[in-house]
């Protein structure tokens, strides 16, 4: 399940004092580096970085929407959820373009088609690296277990 990134992007990013939430796998070296180097437009407002392994309540909210964090990062922006390829597409569209990483990211992933075709390659790389490092996927790590009292 994902949300198309096109259309009303300008309306979402023009929210004064808006907040965005980016949920990623903090044990994945690629994911961690990506969020560390990513720069988004100041007009976006505050961007909260959430390691999905830390048990943040947003992780349960994301899972409740049927989004699999082992299949992709999630950006919550303006009440909408962007998952996987849509997430990196939106982040590329919001990129400041400052620095080589952000220029390259924007050049490649501002295209929804390129994002859709390249994201599975990135996800496969993530999965291979986690396996080589002996780290479990989120669903296998116990990080995504249901809080007490929930079915």
Concise structural overview:
With 151 residues, the chain is α+β, with helices and mostly antiparallel strands.
Helices, by number, come to 7
Tell me, briefly, the overall form.
globular
Share of helix, binned: 40-55%
Strand order of the largest sheet: 2-1-3-4
Total beta strand runs: 4
Kindly list the characteristics that best describe this protein.
disordered C terminus, 7 helices, globular, alpha+beta, four-stranded mixed β-sheet, disordered N terminus, 4 strands, 151 residues
What does this entry look like structurally?
By secondary structure, the chain is of the alpha+beta class. The chain is built from seven helices and four strands. The protein has helices spanning 9-13, 29-37, 57-64, 85-94, 100-109, 112-132, 138-141, and strands at residues 19-24, 46-51, 74-77, 80-83. A four-stranded mixed beta sheet has the order 2-1-3-4, sandwiched between helices. Strand 1 (19-24), helix 2 (29-37) and strand 2 form a beta-alpha-beta unit.
């Amino acid at each position: 399940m994902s949300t198309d990134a096109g259309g009303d992007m300008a309306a979402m990013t023009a929210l004064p004092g808006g907040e965005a939430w980016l949920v990623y796998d903090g044990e994945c070296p690629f994911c961690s580096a990506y969020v560390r180097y990513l720069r988004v437009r100041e007009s976006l407002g505050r961007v909260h970085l959430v390691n999905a392994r830390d048990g943040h309540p947003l992780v349960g909210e994301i899972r409740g929407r049927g989004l699999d964090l082992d299949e992709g990062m999630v950006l919550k922006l303006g009440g909408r959820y962007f998952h996987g390829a849509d997430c990196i597409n939106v982040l590329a569209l919001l990129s400041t373009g400052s620095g080589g990483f952000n220029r390259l990211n924007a050049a490649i992933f501002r295209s929804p088609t390129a994002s859709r075709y390249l994201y599975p390659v990135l996800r496969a790389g993530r999965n291979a690296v986690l396996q080589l490092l002996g780290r479990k996927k989120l669903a296998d790590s116990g990080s995504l277990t249901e809080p007490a009292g929930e079915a």
